[in-house]
Amino acid sequence: MPKMKSLSAVNAGLVVVIVYDGLSLFEYGCAVEVFGLPRPEMGDAWYSFATCAAEPGKLHGSGGIQVRADGGLELLAKAKTIIVPGWRDIEEAVPPELCRALNKANKRGARVMSICTGAFVLAAAGLLDGKSATTHWRHATALASRYPDIRVEPDVLYVDAGDVLTSAGSAAGIDLCLHLIRRDLGPRAANQVARRLVMPPHREGGQAQYIDEPVSKRSGSALAPLMDAVRATLAEDWSIVRMAAKTAMSARTFQRHFVSTMGVPAGEWLLAERMGRARELLEETDLSVDDIALQVGFGAAATLRNHFRTRLGTSPGYYRRRFNASEAS
Question: Domain holding 99: CATH number?
């Protein structure tokens, strides 16, 4: 039976979310859903949570909902992590008081994280100068042209630059939140939260798969039974011919349909599924690299190592030491 890791016992500190008039409610809701809900199963290790008003007066979110913050910018002095949801308008100047408060908090050691266009707030505060960052693909060009000292990466879901983190579009904010949990409390904690959110703990790929991709092309897909079958039997040989037969299509038609529906070739999707499962097994079990390679369908440990080097720039052994708490302890 594989050995499972235990949760970290270290308290993760105070998370403070910036709120403002014209607040982007979805991005704000992502932060609240991940960090602001009670999670008794996490024990004393879990985060504390507060909201901070970026400006005085009544604050309303999109749709007219009034938002009441727990305090003003003084709360940033106590935060370990500060989250800036998508800014109300990338053409609107960021209040100087907010920029100064973010800078002061970051200099004393607080991490600052943005979701979607919240990157423009971090950029205005100078926190992204000389660093890599991302934002929603629609606004990446504007961010790069407006702030040439930032290395904008338009195709990734998020960028972790250590004490400053940025994410792409709204849903990618959840990916970054889960990454932060994984970084602070280990993969098991991140996986538990992901399960409650009914989403995978890792998403392969970047923003490119979503650019100008109509949602209707992904809905009601006849590929769902095939994908479920492949995920359940990754150790087996899933050739294009076999996958096509499973969907009652010719190989040529299947490949064309898969790309038009999923945005990536079937082989790339299969590789991403195998990599995702390999990462889970490295994080959650003490199985050998050889056994993991067999279970996910790579056959040999050398093949698994090659894919880790190519896609993640690391080795399975290093990845395990970083993300499996039983290895780190």
Answer: 3.40.50.880
